[in-house]
Amino acid sequence: MKASILAVGDELLGTDRLDTNSLALTEVLRRRGVELVSKAVVGDDVALIAESLEGLREQADVLLVTGGLGPTRDDLTREGVARLLGRSVAVDEALWDQIEQGFQKLGRRIPRVNRKQAARVEGAEMLPNRAGVAPGQRIEDAEPMPRGTTYFLFPGVPREMNALIADALDPWLAARAEDGAGFDQIEVRVACLPESVVEERIAPVYERFGDENLSVLARPGEIRLRLRASGPVADRGPLLSRMVEAVRDALGESVFYAGPVEGGIEFEAAVGDLLTARGETVAVAESCTGGQLGQRLTATAGSSAYFVGGLLVYSNRLKMRLLGVPREILVEHGAVSEPTALAMAAGARQRCGSDYGIGITGVAGPGGGSESRPVGTVHIAVAGPADSRSHFEARFPGDRARVRQLSTQFALEMLRRMLLSGVGPADTLPWAAPSRMGPP
């Protein structure tokens, strides 16, 4: 099977919007053993859309189109496809009723222009969109002979298109793939280990399963490993299970997730799941991160079960008043110090009535650093039941945004480790070296 991709939208022809949808489509095609033969981008013009599709279909069995399914005047993908195929476009009244009812359930009035999103190309199968309003469409056409072409029309909003890939495109491709074509994959996510350390530890995994079946994707404070299994479909699941087991053996408790690539659990949600399983709660006291840790902990639905609240305490006055940080600690050690972070964590726990408290204080930059406390210096502390405490001093590299992101990531990992072990002294953490320097 061969495929082509057409991305529709004037904005994709400029400099401020990237066509990331084609990357997601390419990934699922590659995984299902479908050869991608061409990609193209075209503006919002009916004639140009039809012309582009005509050129692409000569070499493809499947044509994937993204964008142009919205409610505005320049959303013209349906009309372009209809012109190519010599078909009509008309509003599906039953579908329009469903869209109206969806808005009514939300207590919102639906604008009349949204009727356009219920327009169906003649002969198309409508593909429900669980992530938005506009459904996708699948159209079978006998041209060009003898094989014909299948068209998939997807919304341009990445979140909506990804939902339709999972619900409609991937199952359709899987049902038509030859046994042994393509591959299955699993993602393993690792917290707060440097990429070089991960690479060193998983060397036996490379040797056992082959370099080509494992790839490393690094992001600040997190490594994602893609494990791939090819060959007969029935053999892939057991092979992936053995690969995951080998990675877990190599990386231990640093692994916080192993499962599907799409829709996998984010780190803060994994920490929330641990709290929920233990029936315990957390509160935060933040200085240099300005609420980002609280935002991450509450990003997951149901977080009210484990997140009690938080305090933003930039000034020493509020650290003392709201958290009970002793004045003598601030005078003797300063706001950016181990004793202050520990007092903030304990204060958050006590004042909010939670099982755990987290304190973060540091110099995020670009100014404010000193010789003893350069930009990137951050102290993170966790206080838990039975006087358990954990502290970590980091020297995070990068700009202000990176320092703040890494600070919240390491704070979550410190809490996760304490939840897993019941204790949390810094020297039990795999990245707490004697120099107490953060990873690159």
Explain the overall architecture.
This protein is α/β, with parallel strands linked by helices and 440 residues long. Helix content is 38%, strand content 23%. It has helices spanning 21-31, 46-57, 77-85, 93-105, 158-176, 195-201, 203-209, 233-251, 267-278, 292-297, 316-323, 327-333, 338-352, 400-421; strands at 2-8, 35-42, 62-66, 89-91, 119-121, 125-127, 136-141, 149-154, 183-191, 214-219, 222-230, 255-259, 282-286, 307-312, 356-362, 377-383, 389-395. Helix 1 (21-31) runs parallel beside helix 5, helix 2 (46-57) crosses helix 3 (77-85) and helix 9 packs parallel to helix 14. Residues 423-440 have low confidence and may be disordered.
In terms of topology, how is this protein built?
Elements: E1 2-8, H1 21-31, E2 35-42, H2 46-57, E3 62-66, H3 77-85, E4 89-91, H4 93-105, E5 119-121, E6 125-127, E7 136-141, E8 149-154, H5 158-176, E9 183-191, H6 195-201, H7 203-209, E10 214-219, E11 222-230, H8 233-251, E12 255-259, H9 267-278, E13 282-286, H10 292-297, E14 307-312, H11 316-323, H12 327-333, H13 338-352, E15 356-362, E16 377-383, E17 389-395, H14 400-421
Parallel strand pairs: 1-2, 1-3, 3-8, 13-14, 13-15
Antiparallel strand pairs: 4-5, 6-7, 7-8, 9-11, 9-12, 10-11, 15-16, 16-17
Helix pairs in contact: 1-5, 2-3, 9-14
